[in-house]
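Predict the 3D structure for this chain.
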Amino acid sequence: MRRDDLPAAVLWDMDGTIMDTEPYWMAEERALVEEAGGVWSHEDALSLVGLDLHDSARIILDRSPVTGTPTEVVERLLAGVVRRTRERVPWRPGAWELLGDLVAAGVPNALVTMSWTPLAEVLVEELPPGTFDAVVTGDQVARGKPAPDPYLVAAERLGVPPGECVAIEDSPTGVRAALSAGVPTIAVPHLVPIDPEPGLVTVPSLEGLTGGDLRRLVAPELSRPR
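Done. Predicted structure below.
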C-alpha cells in the first residue's frame, strides 16, 4: 500500500477504545462510594466516561460522602483498575489487530488517555514493543479531555500536524477533545452515544478495519482547510 493511502499518524484513546476498562472504573467508583455509605448509580458512572480523572474525582466528592482530596480519590480508583486489568486485559474488538496493521505499515501511533501512567503502562506492556511512538496520559497534561491539550501534545511528540492525524475515540468527551485539537476523528461508540459533528466519522466497530480504511474514512476531513 502506498504511504499516501495511510494516515500520517493515529492517536488512540485507551479506556473503552482499546481496552473495555470502563466497567472496571465503574466497579471501583461504586465500591469507593458504598464504603463511605453512599450510593453510586449507573447513570452517575456514565457521566464520568472520558473525563479527566481529577474532574471525575471532584464529581465523586461532590455527589457522595467520600472524603479526601481529588488526588487521593484518583489513586484509590486507579489502584483497583490497574489490579483488575493486570488480572485480565479486556480488549475491544479489532483494536489489537488494527494496531498491528498500522505498525506493520510504518504508521506512527500515540496513546492519548486520561488514565494515569500506571494503567497506560499495563497496556504498553501487553502489546508488542514499539507499538506506541508516544504516550500521553492524564497526569502529564495541565488540562485533560475535553480540552484539546492531550491531542495537541501527542501530535507534537510525533512531529505530525494535528490535521494530518486520525484520532480514534469512544466517548463524547474524547471526541470533543480531538476535534477541538483539529484532528479528524473516528468514533466507535461504546457505553455512551455520540452525536454527529463536523469532522467526525462514526463506525460500529474496529473489527476488520485496516490503516487504509482509516485514511479513506476521514479523507474528506483530511482535505478540508483548517
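The two ends are 27 Å apart (CA to CA).
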